[in-house]
């Protein structure tokens, strides 16, 4: 990659990473330390191709985890229904 391509790739990855962090972690004040950490680490290593790839992979991981979690919830796989079933049993017995 030439110098210009690295800068363009870094800007795109940085934008995508901050967007994913804002979407999945949140923008609230008590969560700003995570966003600040991501910004500082990215700015320190913005010209390293390996670090840009690492940031791209982390963005992909962050988005994928939440997509899989949403999929599991849509099928009710991730929901523990034990407590709900105990409550129903007590109501039937009463």
Protein model, in words:
The protein has one domain (3-93). The chain is mainly α and 94 residues long. The chain contains four helices and no strands. The chain starts with a helix and ends with a helix. Helices cover 78% and strands 0% of the residues. The mean pLDDT is 84. It has helices at residues 3-24, 32-44, 49-74, 82-93. Pfam families: Complex1_LYR_2 (PF13233).
In short:
Helices cover 78% and strands 0% of the residues. By secondary structure, the protein is an all-alpha fold.
Shape: elongated
Query: Which bin fits the share of residues in helices?
Result: over 70%
In oligomeric terms, what are we looking at?
single chain
Low-pLDDT residue spans? none
Query: Would you tell me the overall average pLDDT?
Result: 84
Spatial extent as radius of gyration: 20 Å
Structural classification: mainly alpha
Topology:
Elements: H1 3-24, H2 32-44, H3 49-74, H4 82-93
Helix pairs in contact: 1-2, 1-3
């Amino acid at each position: 990659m030439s110098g210009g391509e690295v800068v363009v790739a870094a800007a795109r990855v940085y934008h995508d990473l901050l967007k994913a962090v804002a979407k999945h972690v949140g923008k609230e004040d008590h969560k700003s330390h995570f966003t600040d950490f991501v910004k500082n680490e990215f700015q320190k290593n913005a010209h390293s191709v390996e670090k840009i790839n690492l940031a791209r992979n982390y963005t992909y991981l962050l988005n994928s985890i939440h997509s899989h979690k949403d999929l599991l919830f849509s099928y009710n796989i991730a929901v523990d229904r034990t407590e709900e079933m105990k409550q129903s049993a007590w109501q039937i017995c009463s």
